[in-house]
Here is the input.
Amino acid sequence: MDPSERRAGVAALFDQLAPGYDRSNVPWFGPIGARLVELTSPRPGDRALDVGAGRGAATFPLVDAVGPTGHVTAVDLSSAMLDQLRTEAETRAVSTLDTRTGEATPDTMPPDTFDVVTASLVLFFDPQPAETLGCWIALLRPGGRLGLSTFGPTDPAWTAAEAVLMAYAPPQVLDARTTGRTGPFATTDSVTALLESAGATDVDSHDEPLDVTFPDAAAWRAWTMTLGMRQFWASVPDPELPAVLTRIESALEPDRGEDGRLHLTQQVRYTTATRP
Ligand SMILES: C[S@@+](CC[C@H](N)C(=O)[O-])C[C@H]1O[C@@H](n2cnc3c(N)ncnc32)[C@H](O)[C@@H]1O
Here is the structure.
């Protein structure tokens, strides 16, 4: 599929997800975005860019970190996500933020400008991650800092549950999240190599665990329907849905704790780097 068609598909997916996105009670995008910003170390007065800003999981921590003398630009392919982000900015009375719909490239934004660029859980959706990364790095001033979050390993029960679903997903909805050990996001070493090949230096890539709990598999499913994973559910034919749910329920069972809840662990991969 043509890269621009693929990005249009990503925009359409997140336009559809925007109203319910990150509105479950599962602490997920918020803690990941906040930790990413912490590790990327923006300073008061910095000009920051948040690519794939969504509803602002990293954007608002950036706004707080750069303070009243700094500025944050939030970019996203999905205009509906940015509508939600602007509503939140109004609620918070934020005046140091602007938003742009589309991609962040030196053709659409001033190069050599930003002190900090973040992208939390974004790059693996891109059909050309190395080229796209090169564009983001070109928007940093020399010495500017880049921070990315992606996913590391998931616990075995969760992996097994996802595998049930993935078996139905047609190739055109699979992306770099789903290419396992062969993809550029497979290991901290491969992510480091990706950043270095795009011209970044001082790369640090490491995983930190994030634990989430669910009362049962149905609650897990409801949550995944608010994420990019929704497109995988859409591939399951209706008559097969009950059997798929039963298999997922069995797959998740080993994660049930003494409190009766399912305890799932996702390693989150944080990668920071510098533009030389
Ligand atoms: C999983 S969401 C993450 C949103 C937000 N960063 C967060 O952590 O909640 C991914 C977002 O990235 C956007 N996106 C994906 N690829 C992009 C690209 N190349 N340029 C700009 N936005 C992109 C999607 O539209 C979506 O809103």
Q: What stands out?
A: DSSP finds ten helices and seven strands in the chain. Residues 7, 10-11, 14, 22, 29, 33, 51-54, 57-58, 75-78, 81, 103, 120-122, 125-126, 132, 228 surround S-adenosylmethionine (CB under 6 Å).
